[in-house]
Design brief:
heterotrimer, A alpha/beta (982), B mainly alpha (353), C mainly alpha (198), A: Rossmann fold, 4-stranded antiparallel beta sheet, B: 353 residues, mainly alpha, two-stranded antiparallel ribbon, 62% helix, 1% strand
Chain lengths: 982, 353, 198
């Protein structure tokens, strides 16, 4: 049967096949070391199943197939696994790949193996698996796992099985020699394939330049029952290309992007058929292959059956390589093979030929001339492409156009390059273009993927933000609700307390703390001034005095407010409970102290008792308040009244005691008793107690009157605070604007700062307004009262002076009444002070309080310090560079000073801050923690509340209460904290 | 010696661009000989002069472009261009006309476009067309074949030295007049109301001198066939062009034999054969695929006939080729071959905005 | 007078007709979204690295469609600039900052011994390619990493490296052949000698 069809193009390079067909196939020696790559086939690399140091036998599986497209790898000879590592592999890149290195022992000891008795007797799937397990992959070209192709019968109708014996590439004679010597094995292998695929027609395609092989085949197929034809075709390269072969033998074209099985055709190499025969009949896995060793640099070119993994060096030496003539080492044919740059590269399953070429045989390509579009490439292209156009597109990187011109139908046969008169490496251009396009596509896929992920992430973040916003809103609502509840309560309370017009306990506390701080500051300033003897000491002293008064007033107001149950407008049940408990504890303590005193018979039993009684009363009051609050009911006024009565009683008791004690003391003094001193102390103590009790009583009584005054005081404070904050806000805003316009990176931070300040300002303002609008906040102190007060005060001053003088005189004369007089003077002085204070409180404007030092902005301070420091450093560095520069030196000195000043200011501020905190006995850190805990408690309570609401639980009110309490505490703490943290 | 790593294939056919060019040069030799035989030494002198100029210009411009001189001069492309221009010019054209022509061909039409392989227009034809429109007098005064000069069949041509002197401008033009005459195409074009038959019998260049043109055409044809045999180019372009010209002229001739010349005249007169085998087949400027080449050839054939019949110039090869050069990229877009495994050939050019 | 009136009326009529036509067309053939932005976005490498000054590739695509420069994408390299120039029919300009022409593709790699599990890189990653939890070691999913660099900065212990993607046997590719003839003389001397000897 002769050729009926032909394919387009093709070339006929010098065959160069005779050199290697001179002798029979020889068995290659077993090398000392075999390097078996894990990936000798297309598909996933096999998985190593041996370890370094293992002894392996010939034919033993050393790596197993992974996945669908993969095959086993076997040990080509017996020996010890020396290494499993990356070794050079036959690849155009010259790179390395994981390989199993076996040191052979030369015994070539086989693992137990056997072929199949009758391959027709077992299920096809088992037979295919058998072939797969024997590591058989295509031996002609790319090394596609054979078993995959043998499955094609499952989902394709295979009409024609084509055996490729073309060997169209020059030089290669491996298949030729195989057919000459083992044609019957090949035919038996074909029978196995045919059994699996059940084709109607089997064709063996062979070129007419192998007459001996054709004859051997004809002989071997005489007895075959297969519908088998040997098709002899003229020698044209690349007739052995799968698609070209199919076109040549059947006239059918494999559609682009499809496999031959889609048109009912399966191609197998004759070498593969022989390997299948070995596996099926003898159980020999694919551990060796026939390879053509040829090229002008070899003294004895011939074919060899060599073990997989044998280094090329071993093979070339056995073919008498003339090392000095070797110029190019090609694996595969001269048209499609690739060069390697090392002889240590091993033989693998697809290595059909090794060409050791000399310089003259395969000279380097001369530099390429420009393409003159002569069209010779187009005439020889077996894929009917326009190679010169593709070349232009590849060169210009116009990959879209190249794709449009069917670049991917190029089989890289090299015919175009072969004929190109301009010596253009066309195939390399196509390979480059293909790789670039694949790369671009992969990148495009990756980019799309990345975009998807990015967008998904964006969506997720958006969602989270929304949810957060929602939660925040919910929280705000709840907070607002709670606020409303609180306000209601506050309104109720303030309504109740309207008559007393008591100020907010909290604000009082704050005011007192502020006053204290200011006082401290002033004191310190005074001290400083005094130490240094500079500044207006008098003025400072005055300020201190005033501040002292103020502070006292504030403290008193606060104490009053605190001690007056009626003045606890926002204290909830829990607070009351706590109060009650505290009172109880105190009571117990007092009781204990009393008992102790009784036992020892010492101390002032009376006083203790009185204290105890007082405490008892307090406890009762607290308990009552708590009970009342809990029962939701009795007006606070009652508590107030009760308390008043209590106070009065305790005061009277104390007075009586004092009188008694005084009398006893007098008697003792008169009798010259040695206990006088002691008694004196006791009397004084009692007197103090009495005073306390009295003051308490008076305060309680006069609370309604004094509170407004305090309120006014607080108001002023608040206003000052507010203004200070406003100033800060403005400053910060200005700084922010400057930063924005200068594009400073700190803008974000500054903005946040400004916002914070603004928030604070608003808070302060609100507080101020609240205070202002509070009922009876403005004290109506008439000028008359003021004048009266003043005159009283002056009169008192005169009395004090007089008394003082008398005392002085008495002391000087050694009068025994001196002590008494002293006491009198002190009393007078106290009165004077009281009057003065009353006057001050009423008038306020008499000695205008020294304005506080401008509010210190710690941030600014810090910035200043760091700026100055940086400048200083720079200047110093400059100075180091130019040590003699006087100007620089002065500059440095100036900066050093500036730095010190700034640092000092900062330090002062910081120590002040610490002092402030310490002054209140508050551990800042602890405070912070407490505040955070309180906040957490609020959140927790909120959550519990919302949960409870959802679940419609019965304990809702309870939880709400808890929430309120938590909120309150958190607020308290936060406020305290905010005083210190800014 | 370190082993080299290169891309396949590792074999290369022993042919190069210079081989191709040398073959072309060889193929023009019969035509050159025929021209010299029938029209005197002028053509030979022109060709040599043009070649010298071309190599000079090429070398200069390569130097200016800082490219390796020997490498580029070795490809003979400049020589081929000059040769074709020299063959196309009238034999007695003054030296400076050739100089301008070669300058335009090598410097303007070739190197300004990027050198060999980049030029969209056939350099020789660009030069020819430019000369034709710039120096119509010099370009249209053709030499009469020797049979018309003097008496009988003797080989009566202007002597070599005289021709040399004529071309380089030191010969009295009065002597020359006896050797000049119209070309057959001129005669046919400016026949002044005569029928073709009357022209054939009355105008000497047609009545007696046409044989010279036939001979020259035959020589070019032989060269062309040789090149096709050596696979320097395919038969597609010349065949399509000649067949189209023949078919068109036959049609017109059959319809009105009195007004239209016969197809054989069209095929053999003027530069038809030179154009068909040496100009239109210039691979750089022609269409790429075989199908494209056919279209390209048909276009040239048609345009030649149209311009000869109704255009302003007697011959039309240069204009026809240039016009089709313009169309070549377009033709390429629509004449891609059907690749293996594809049911249909692709059209157009993707990726073009 | 009549003529002027007629002319005016005619012009007004025409204006009316065309106005209606244009109005109709703008409604009828309205294009949803901006297809150009999609096209530009398709060309950008989607590393979402923000080196262009926009928060992600799409915002930059939008900016380009509104006239921003096309040369602000270092990860895309010159090829992206050229593709954009092609699409927008503008001049291809060199990459801003004159960085390397074709940037080496990189992926982030976390030195896992040094990772403290702060999750900062996770928050920075625009494509969620980093895996980990607080106080747990993090790792980069190499196949998802776009090599945008954004995770390097936030790492408090500097344990993230940007490593170039290594070429494997599967990703190795042939280079474009050197265009021998286009080299200038000095570059070509060596090769020429070889060629001459052949």
């Amino acid at each position: 049967m002769s050729t009926q069809f032909s394919f387009h193009g093709g070339v006929h390079p010098p065959e160069n096949k005779r050199q290697s067909t001179g002798g029979p196939i020889q068995i290659a020696p077993i090398p000392e070391q075999l390097s078996v790559p894990l990936s000798q086939h297309i598909g996933a690399p096999s998985d190593v199943v041996v370890a370094v140091g293992d002894r392996v036998l010939k034919g033993q599986v050393i790596a197993e197939a992974v996945g669908r497209i993969s095959v086993n790898v076997h040990a080509p000879s017996s020996g010890v696994v020396e290494a499993i590592e990356a070794r050079p592999v036959p690849h155009s890149s010259g790179m390395t790949a994981p390989s199993i290195v076996i040191r052979t022992d030369g015994e070539d000891e086989w693992v137990e193996h056997s072929g199949l008795e009758d391959f027709r007797a077992i299920p096809k799937q088992e037979l295919i698996d058998f072939i797969r397990h024997h590591g058989i992959s295509g031996m002609g070209g790319a090394g596609f796992p054979t078993d995959v192709k043998l499955h094609l019968g499952d989902d394709h109708i295979v009409n024609t099985l084509i055996l490729n014996a073309m060997e169209c590439e020059p030089y290669i004679t491996a298949d030729d020699m195989l057919l000459r010597e083992h044609a019957e094995q090949v035919v038996k292998g074909i029978e196995v394939i045919a059994h699996l695929l059940q084709p109607h027609h089997v064709m063996i395609g062979i070129e007419d330049n192998k007459p001996q092989a054709i004859r051997a085949l004809e002989l071997a197929t005489e007895q075959s029952k297969l519908n088998l034809d040997i098709v002899v075709v003229p020698t044209v390269y690349p007739s052995g290309g799968e698609k070209q072969l199919i076109k040549l033998l059947t006239g059918v074209e494999v559609p682009s992007g499809h496999i031959p099985a889609d048109v009912g055709i399966v191609c197998q190499n004759v070498g593969t058929a022989s390997a299948i025969y070995d596996a099926v009949y003898n159980g020999i896995p694919l551990i060796s292959r026939i390879v053509t060793l040829t090229g002008d640099a070899l003294g004895h070119p011939h074919n060899m059956r060599a073990l997989i993994g044998t280094p090329l060096q071993t093979l070339l030496q056995s073919a008498q390589l003339r090392e000095k003539d070797l110029y190019r080492l090609v694996i595969g044919g001269p048209m499609m093979g690739f060069t390697v740059d090392s002889q240590s590269i091993p033989l693998i399953k697809t290595t059909n030929c090794v060409i050791a070429a000399t310089y003259n045989e395969m000279p380097p390509a001369p530099p390429a001339n420009p393409c003159i579009r002569c069209g010779m490439c187009e005439q020889v292209c077996p894929a009917e492409l326009l190679p010169q156009q593709l070349h232009w597109f590849a060169k210009g990187k116009e990959f879209e156009k190249a794709k449009h011109h069917n670049l991917f139908d190029c089989i890289e046969c090299g015919a175009c390059s072969y004929v190109c008169p301009s010596n253009i490496p066309l195939v390399q251009y196509y390979r480059f273009a293909k790789a670039e396009i694949r790369n671009e596509e992969a990148e495009q896929r990756k980019a799309d993927h990345a975009r998807q992920r990015f967008e998904a992430r964006q969506a997720r973040l958006e969602q989270e933000k929304l949810e957060k916003e929602l939660r925040r809103k919910q929280r705000a609502e709840e907070a607002a609700k709670a606020q409303a509840v609180k306000k209601d309560k506050a309104v109720q309370n303030s309504e109740k307390a309207e008559s007393s017009g008591e100020p907010d306990l909290k604000s009082l506390k704050t005011a007192s703390a502020v006053a204290r701080t200011k006082l401290k500051k002033a004191q310190k300033a005074l001290q400083l001034a005094e130490d240094k003897g500079v500044g207006d000491i008098d003025k400072l002293r005055q300020t201190v005095t005033e501040l002292e008064a103020k502070e006292r007033a504030a403290q008193e107001a606060y104490d009053q407010a605190q001690s007056a149950p009626a003045e606890q407008p926002v204290v909830d049940i829990q607070q009351l409970k706590t109060n009650a408990a505290v009172a109880r504890t105190k009571l117990k303590q007092a009781e204990k102290a009393l008992a102790k005193a009784k036992e020892s018979g010492e101390g002032d039993l009376e006083a203790l008792r009185a204290k105890l009684a007082e405490q008892k009363a307090k406890t009762e009051a607290a308990q009552a308040a708590y009970d009342q609050a809990e029962s939701g009911g009795a007006p606070q006024a009652d508590v107030n009244a009760v308390n008043l009565d209590e106070l009065k009683a305790s005061m009277e008791t104390a007075l009586g005691k004092v009188d008694k004690a005084q009398k006893a003391l007098d008697a003792a003094v008169a009798s010259g008793s040695p206990a006088v001193e002691k008694m004196k102390a006791g009397v004084e103590k009692l007197q103090g107690k009495y005073k306390e009790a009295k003051a308490e009583y008076e305060n309680a009584q006069s609370a309604p009157a004094s509170a407004p005054v305090m309120s006014a005081e607080t108001l002023a404070e608040l206003k000052a605070d507010m203004e200070a904050i406003q100033g800060k806000v403005e400053k910060a805003q200005k700084a922010l604007d400057a930063a924005v316009s200068s594009g400073s990176p700190a803008v974000e931070k500054m903005k946040a700062g400004v916002e914070k300040l603004q928030g604070k300002y608003k808070e302060a303002k609100a507080e101020y307004e609240n205070a202002q609008s509070a009922p009876a906040s403005a004290p109506v102190v008439s000028a008359e009262t003021l004048a009266e007060l003043k005159s009283d005060m002056e009169a008192m001053q005169g009395k004090v002076e007089k008394a003082q003088k008398a005392l002085d005189a008495a002391t000087a004369s050694g009068s025994p009444a001196a002590d008494k007089m002293k006491a009198g003077v002190e009393k007078l002085q106290g009165k004077y002070n009281e009057l003065k204070q009353a006057f001050l409180e009423a008038g306020g404007q008499l000695p205008a309080a020294q304005p506080d030092a401008a509010p210190v902005d710690p941030k600014t301070l810090k910035q200043t310090v760091s700026i100055v420091r940086t400048k200083l450093k720079k200047a110093q560095a400059a100075l180091d560079g130019a040590a003699d520069d006087v100007e620089l030196q002065t500059e440095v000195q100036r900066l050093t000073q500036a730095h010190e000043v700034a640092k000092k200011a900062l330090d002062t501020y910081e120590s002040e801050q610490n002092d402030k905190a310490a002054a209140e006995g508050i551990d800042l850190k602890q405070l912070k923690i407490d505040a955070a805990m309180a906040r957490a408690a609020v959140t927790k309570a909120e959550r519990a509340l919302s949960k409870a609401r959802e679940a419609e639980q019965d304990d809702l009110p309870e939880i709400e209460q808890q929430l309120l309490a938590a909120q309150l505490e958190a607020e308290n703490l936060n406020q305290t904290l905010s005083r210190f943290t800014d | 010696m370190a082993l080299i790593r290169t891309s396949s294939p590792h074999l290369h056919k022993a042919s190069s661009t210079s081989d191709v060019m040398r073959l072309v040069v060889m193929a023009t030799l019969p035509g050159l000989a025929a021209m010299t035989f029938f029209f005197g030494w002028g053509t030979l002198i022109n060709v040599v002069w043009a070649c010298l100029l071309a190599v000079g210009f090429e070398a200069t411009i390569i130097k200016i472009r800082k490219r390796p001189l020997g490498f580029y001069l070795k490809d003979y492309s400049a020589v081929v261009t000059a040769l074709l221009l020299g063959l196309a010019l009238p034999p007695f054209v003054p030296w400076w006309v050739t100089l301008v022509g070669v300058f335009v061909a090598i410097v303007v039409a070739k190197h300004l476009y990027g050198g060999l392989g980049q030029n969209p227009f056939n350099p020789a034809m660009v030069a020819y067309a430019l000369l034709l429109v710039s120096f119509p007098v010099q370009m249209t005064s053709w030499t009469a074949p020797f049979v018309l000069n003097g008496e009988g069949d003797s080989w009566n041509i202007l002597g070599f030295v005289d021709t040399f002197k004529l071309i380089f401008g030191s010969l009295d033009s009065a002597i020359v007049d006896t050797y000049t005459g119209a070309t057959p195409l001129d005669a046919m074009r400016h026949r002044g109301g005569l029928t073709t038959e009357e022209v054939w019998s009355s105008v000497p260049v047609l009545a007696d001198g046409i044989g010279a043109w036939h001979a020259v055409s035959a020589a070019y044809f032989m060269g062309g066939v040789f090149l096709i045999y050596r696979k320097v180019f395919t038969i597609h372009t010349p065949a399509a062009m000649l067949i189209t010209l023949a078919v068109t002229s036959t049609l017109f001739y059959l319809v009105d034999p009195y007004n239209y010349a016969d197809p054989f005249f069209h095929l053999t007169a003027g530069a038809t054969m030179l154009g068909a085998f040496f100009i239109a087949t210039d691979p750089v400027t022609s269409a790429t695929s075989n199908k494209g080449k056919v279209v390209f050839g048909i276009g040239i054939g048609l345009l030649i006939y149209i311009i000869r019949g109704w255009g302003g110039y007697p011959d039309a090869v240069a204009f026809a080729v240039l016009l089709m050069n313009l169309a070549a990229p377009f033709i390429d877009q629509y004449t891609q071959p059907r690749s293996y495994g594809h049911a249909k050939a692709k059209r157009g050019l993707k990726g073009e905005v | 007078m009549d003529i002027i009136l007629i002319a005016v009326i005619a012009l007004l009529g025409l204006a009316l007709v065309f106005g209606l036509l244009l109005g109709f067309a703008s409604v009828r053939f309205r294009v949803e979204g901006n297809p150009l932005v999609d096209q530009i976005d398709g060309i950008l490498p989607q590393t979402q690295c923000g080196q262009c000054g926009y928060p992600g590739c799409r915002p930059y695509a939008e900016a380009i469609s509104e006239g921003d420069a096309i040369n602000k994408c270092p990860p895309g390299g010159q090829s992206t600039v050229e593709a954009l120039a092609d699409l927008l029919d503008v001049e291809a300009i060199p990459l801003e900052g004159g960085v390397e022409e074709e940037p080496v593709k990189k992926v982030a790699y976390i030195r896992e011994d040094e990772c403290i599990g702060c999750t900062k890189c996770i928050q920075a990653c625009p494509v969620d390619a980093i895996l980990g939890a607080a106080k747990q070691m993090h790792t980069v999913i190499e196949s998802e990493c776009t090599g945008c660099d954004l995770c390097v900065e936030p790492c408090p212990v500097d344990c993230i490296d940007m490593l170039p993607i290594e070429t494997t046997l599967n990703t190795w590719k042939w280079d474009m052949p050197k265009p021998g003839v286009d080299l200038i003389v000095t570059d070509l001397r060596g090769e020429l000698k070889q060629g001459d000897a052949a």
